[in-house]
Amino acid sequence: MNTARALYQMVRADFLERVRRYSFLLTLAFSVYLGYVVYSGQLTLQLSDYRGENNSAWLGAVVGLVGSVWLSLVGFYVVKNAIQRDRQTRVGQILATTPISKGFYTLSKTLSNFAVLAAMVLVLAVAALVLQLMLAGAAHVDLLALLAPVLVLGLSAVAVTAALAVLFESLPVLRGGVGNIAYFFLWTTLLTLGAMTMEGGGPSPTAHPFTDFTGLVTVMTQMQATVHALDPQYQGGASFSLGGLHPTTKTFLYTGVRWTAEVLLSRAMMVAIALGLALAAALFFDRFDPARASWFGAKGPKPAKKGRAALAAAAVVAEANSVVEAQAVHALPHLTPLARGEAGAVVRTRFVALVAAELRLLLRGHGWWWYLVAAGLWIGCVASPLDAARSGVFVVAWIWPALVWSQMGTREAQFATGPLIFSAPRAVPRQLLALFAAGVLVAMLTGGGLAVRMALAGDMVGLGAWAAGAMFIPALALALGVTTGSRKFFEALYTAWWYIGPLHHIRKLDFMGTTAESSTPVGYLVAAIALVAVAYFWRKVWLARD
User: Fold this and answer.
1) Which of 245, 240, 246, 244 is nearest to 221 (CA)?
2) Is residue 293, in this structure, part of any structural domain at all?
3) 353 vs 38, 341, 359, 435, 527, CA distance in Å?
4) Are 275 and 307 contained in the same domain?
5) Rounded to two decimals, what is the model's pTM?
6) Which of 4, 158, 471, 494 has the greatest CB tally within 10 Å of its CB?
7) What share of the chain is helix, strand, coil (3-state, %, to 5)?
8) d(Cα 32, Cα 75) in Å, to the nearest integer?
């Protein structure tokens, strides 16, 4: 009884600490936005030419799948900071001196994560009710059919997400940017596992609920069976996507999810898996002991050494940023002032040094193997046929440095070096431009093989698309880093965008210009300029506030 009470108090305290943050309001606003995209028809569930009538059963199923599918992705990045926050605030060191077991701690963090994500699911449930009232009227509301899919599917899926966030934070190799990128691919794998295990084909396939992480395949196969019973000419096919494949022309009466014993047991199994993952995380949790901070039992001084290195590197940036003004202020009276041309040359020289310092910071900490893979991709872009290089090797070449770009704009918040860097006159424009230039250099170095290949082939249009992408990616990283102070927003957004756009050559989303048909370089060039401007004005406002 005392253990249960202590667990409740710890979860409650952690949850209340989170809800007092502005970020929690943003997560709830995202749930409201998901409801809006359903209402506006931007996110659609369709079965070939069919969609369901706007009754409680149909809206409940659609909103329930929105919660289980999209919140299981976005929610991971929302809650994947519980243990890290205790490290940064030194609360972890205090907890390490208490009798709290590792299993108790990881379970409490999982439950706290779940409480945050459950709040988002509840907002979706309210949004489903509002949608029903707006689209069909209050006389037709069936609360059970409307809310059951939202709560059962949504809560069971985000329970696994909450536990995975704690597990990733407990594993040294996954607690940082690698984990943020790896989770997206894990999520896509889990999402497709249900489809891969379906039996039968055509209009009425059979799903296996126990391999269906989100319940998407289970619900859609039930819908397919309903449509096939109404229309024997229905040949199958279903999609759940932004925008839909094509406009629907027919509707059918959907009576709701069939909550069979197998379906309910599969949802209960997801909750059991979440509890198992929470306890498994305790096996890898280091209990805030620096001696267990890596897989190889690195000793305590190593993190401190890393911190000193970061401060030293920041000092290099600050020195390069202010040397011209410092020389002017402390110049001896008898020295002859520089002529206009000579002064400009000095400024340009120091800006080059500042760009070089920022580039060293971005590339710091990568082992020889990282450069070896980057070199292999560069050579692959040059040696491959142009079309294969542009739509294949090059796509991989620009996902490889994602963790390099994600640092942009975040180091000042991470290492508290802002006062040191921004103490120099005109530090904001020069430091941001130098950092942006360094990010563009990373893009040019890692993807330069394709530029060489296009130049040799005389493909100037493709080269222009390449240049627009080389500017857009670091601009996006810089804007997100400056505005959020965190790396994970860029890592999550960039990985998903890369997967949907360039990897599948979707027009208007292909910022790399992987094919001539999907390339829209002018828009991304304008976006790059706008994102750099956003980063500049955001930082100016932030410094003026402080």
Assistant:
1) 240
2) no
3) 51, 19, 10, 12, 27
4) no
5) 0.78
6) 158
7) 70, 5, 25
8) 14
- 326-351 pLDDT, tens digit per residue, is 444 444 445 455 455 544 544 455 88
Same domain, 201 and 345: no
Contact 180, 73 (CB under 8 A): no
Write out the two tokens for 323.
């040397």
Claim to verify: residue 280 and residue 345 sit in the same structural domain: no
> CA 419 to CA 414: how far, in whole Å?
13
Same domain, 131 and 185: yes
Token readout for 290 is: 């620096």
Alpha carbons 317 and 274: distance in angstroms, whole number: 45
Clarify whether residues 108 and 237 are in a common domain: yes
What is the residue whose two structure tokens read 């925008």? Answer: 243
Q: Which domain holds residue 260?
A: 2-243+252-287
CA angle at 24 for the pair 22 and 26, rounded to the nearest 5°: 75
* Percent of the chain residues topping a pLDDT of 70: 85
Are 37 and 61 members of one domain?
yes
As for how many domains the chain has, the answer is 2
**Would you say residue 336 lies in a domain?**
no
Average pLDDT, the chain: 82
